[in-house]
Design a protein that fits this description.
The chain is built from three helices and 42 strands. By secondary structure, it is α/β, with parallel strands linked by helices. A hairpin with a 3-residue loop joins strand 1 and strand 2.
Length: 521
C-alpha cells in the first residue's frame, strides 16, 4: 500500500485553504455586486418616476394655463418629485449640489427640464472583510416638457442652435475673432467626435446651456461660456488660453489642462462634475475643485421635424401650369414680376426688383441678386427652388417679410450674405408660421447666413438638417431672432453675432399639446 508523505498532506491543506479563501472572496463579490446592481436599478426606476412626476405636474398646469410663472411650476414640480421619491423610501433635496435631489430648468416659451439625481449607499456583507462597508450608487433621470400648442410654442423648444450630425468629427466649430452664440437658447451638438465642439479661433461661443454628445477641444485663444449648464459627453482638453465657464459644468470623461485656460463654475462657487481624471500641467485652474462622478452621457436629440416630414406636412408646392421663362435683369431700371413658374430669376444690375406676393416655382437656375440693386419680396410669398442656388449676395438692400424659402432636394446652396440692409421675416399665419427656411432633408448643400451689424434683421426658424451652416458676423453686433437646425455649424467672422431665442417668431409644429419625454435614464 502506497502512503502519502506528511509534507504532501500539508501542502494540500494549504492549497485548499487558499482556494477556499478565493472562493469566498468571489462569492462575496457576486453577492454584494448583485445587491448593489439591484439597488441601482431600483434607484434608477425611482429617479425616472420622480422626474416624470415633476414633469407631469408642469405639463398638467401649462396645458390649462400657459402663462403660469416659472417659480410656481418649479415649486410644484419639486414637490411632486420629492413626493414620488418618498413613495420609494428615498429622500431627495431641492437641488443637485449633493447629487441627491431635483432641479427644474425653465426655458422660454413653455419648455422645461426636470432633472433628478439619486445617490444611495448599499451595505455590503462579505466585502466587509476587505474593509468595504458599502458601495455608492448615483443615477440620473431627465424628463423634458414642451408645450407646442401654446402661444409662441416651438417645435424645437429651448434650442437656439441644433447641430444634428452624429458622425461629423466636429459639430460646431468657432474659427473667427468675433463672439458668436445664442441668447436665452441652448446649443446642442449631436456629434460623438472628440472635437464635437471645437474652438479654433479667438472669439467666444456663448449659449444658455451648451451640450455636446462628444468631446470639446480648444486649439485657439477663444472662450466658451454657458450662462447655465455646460455638459460634455466625452473628454475636455484645454490646450489654449481660453476659459470654459458655466454655472454647472459636467464632463463625462477626462479633463486635461495643458495651457493657460481654466475651467470655472460660477466664479468658483458653482459645481464641476468630472467622471474621469483631472490633470493640470499648465497654468490654468479648476475652480471649484471637481467632484468625482455626477456627470452623465449627453443624449442625442433627434430631428424634431422628421415626424412632420414623414407625414407629408412639408410637401413641395405644386408646379404652376404653363411655361417657365427666365426673368433676368442687368440694368438700372426698376422691375416687377408676378408669381408663377420661372426657370431662373436674377437681378445683377443697379435697379430694384420687386416680386409681387404669391408662390414662385424655380425650375433650374435658382435666384440671384448679386449687383448693387435691391430686391423686395412682398408679404406672404413662398419661394420654391427645385434646382439651382438661392444667392442674395449683392450690396443692395434685401427685404423679404412674411416669406418662406423652400429649397427642394435637388436645389443648390442657400446664401443670405449680402452687405446691404437685410430684413427677412417668416410668415405670421398658416401652417408654416415662424418658418423662414426649409431645406429638404435629402439636400446637403451649404447654407450661409451673414450678419452685418444693425442693418441686419433676420427672424424665424431655419431648418437645414443635412446642410453645413456657415454663420458669419462681419461688422458691429448683429442680433438675429433666429433658430437654426443644421447638420454642422461653423461660426466665423470678425463681428459679433447672436441668435436671440424668441419663440413667438419660431416654427411651432402642428399644434400638439404639452408632451413629456425622457431625455436621460
Amino acid at each position: 500500500m502506497k502512503t502519502i508523505p506528511r509534507t504532501a498532506k500539508a501542502q494540500v491543506i494549504v492549497v485548499f485553504s487558499l482556494v477556499l479563501v478565493a472562493l469566498l472572496v468571489f462569492t462575496g463579490l457576486a453577492v454584494d455586486g448583485g445587491l448593489a446592481y439591484a439597488d441601482r436599478r431600483a434607484d434608477q426606476n425611482a429617479a425616472d418616476s420622480s422626474a416624470l412626476a415633476g414633469a407631469s405636474s408642469i405639463a398638467n398646469t401649462i396645458n390649462q394655463s400657459p402663462t403660469t410663472p416659472c417659480a410656481t411650476l418649479t415649486n410644484a414640480a419639486i414637490a411632486a418629485a420629492k413626493q414620488n421619491a418618498a413613495k420609494n423610501n428615498l429622500t431627495i433635496e431641492n437641488n443637485l449640489d449633493n447629487h441627491n435631489g431635483v432641479e427644474v430648468t425653465c426655458y422660454p416659451n413653455n419648455v422645461y427640464d426636470v432633472r433628478v439625481m439619486v445617490t444611495t449607499e448599499t451595505e455590503t456583507s462579505f466585502m466587509k472583510l476587505l474593509s468595504a462597508n458599502s458601495v455608492s450608487n448615483t443615477v440620473e433621470a431627465v424628463a423634458h416638457v414642451e408645450l407646442k400648442s401654446s402661444p409662441g410654442g416651438v417645435l424645437a423648444g429651448g434650442l437656439g442652435l441644433l447641430a444634428l450630425s452624429k458622425t461629423a468629427s466636429s459639430g460646431v466649430t468657432l474659427t473667427g475673432t468675433g463672439n458668436i452664440g445664442t441668447k436665452d437658447g441652448d446649443i446642442h451638438i449631436n456629434s460623438n467626435g472628440d472635437n464635437a465642439l471645437l474652438l479654433a479661433g479667438t472669439g467666444t461661443v456663448i449659449g444658455q446651456n451648451i451640450k455636446a454628445v462628444g468631446g470639446f477641444n480648444t486649439t485657439g485663444t477663444g472662450n466658451a461660456t454657458a450662462t447655465a449648464r455646460f455638459d460634455i459627453g466625452k473628454n475636455l482638453p484645454l490646450k489654449g488660453t481660453g476659459n470654459v465657464k458655466g454655472d454647472m459644468i459636467n464632463v463625462n470623461g477626462n479633463v486635461n489642462l495643458t495651457g493657460t485656460g481654466s475651467l470655472i463654475a460660477r466664479n468658483g462657487s458653482g459645481v464641476i462634475n468630472v467622471n474621469g481624471t483631472v490633470t493640470v500641467t499648465g497654468t490654468g485652474t479648476v475652480s471649484p475643485a471637481a467632484h468625482k462622478g455626477g456627470a452623465s452621457p449627453v443624449p442625442t436629440i433627434e430631428d424634431p421635424f422628421i415626424p412632420l416630414v414623414n407625414n407629408g406636412y412639408f410637401a413641395p408646392p405644386a408646379k404652376p401650369a404653363g411655361a417657365c421663362p427666365a426673368a433676368s435683369f442687368n440694368d438700372n431700371k426698376n422691375h416687377t414680376i408676378s408669381p408663377g413658374c420661372y426657370s431662373s430669376i436674377s437681378n445683377t444690375g443697379t435697379g430694384k426688383l420687386t416680386m409681387n406676393s404669391g408662390d414662385y416655382w424655380i425650375t433650374t437656375g435658382g435666384i440671384v441678386n448679386s449687383g448693387t440693386g435691391s430686391i423686395t419680396i412682398n408679404d406672404g410669398s413662398t419661394i420654391y427652388v427645385d434646382k439651382g442656388d438661392f444667392t442674395l449676395t449683392g450690396t443692395g438692400n434685401i427685404t423679404a417679410r412674411e416669406v418662406l424659402f423652400y429649397m427642394g432636394k435637388n436645389a443648390g446652396t442657400f446664401s443670405l450674405t449680402g452687405t446691404g440692409s437685410v430684413s427677412v421675416t417668416p410668415k405670421t399665419t398658416g401652417p408654416y408660421k415662424g418658418l423662414t427656411l426649409f431645406v429638404d432633408p435629402a439636400n446637403n448643400k451649404q447654407v450661409a447666413l451673414t450678419g452685418t451689424g444693425n442693418v441686419t434683421s433676420i427672424n424665424g426658424t431655419f431648418y437645414a438638417p443635412s446642410s453645413a451652416l456657415v454663420l458669419k458676423g462681419t461688422g458691429g453686433t448683429s442680433v438675429l431672432r433666429a433658430q437654426v437646425i443644421c447638420s454642422t455649424a461653423e461660426l466665423t467672422g470678425t463681428g459679433n453675432l447672436t441668435l436671440q431665442y424668441d419663440g413667438d417668431l419660431f416654427f411651432g409644429g402642428d399644434g400638439q399639446p404639452a408632451s413629456v419625454i425622457m431625455l436621460k435614464k
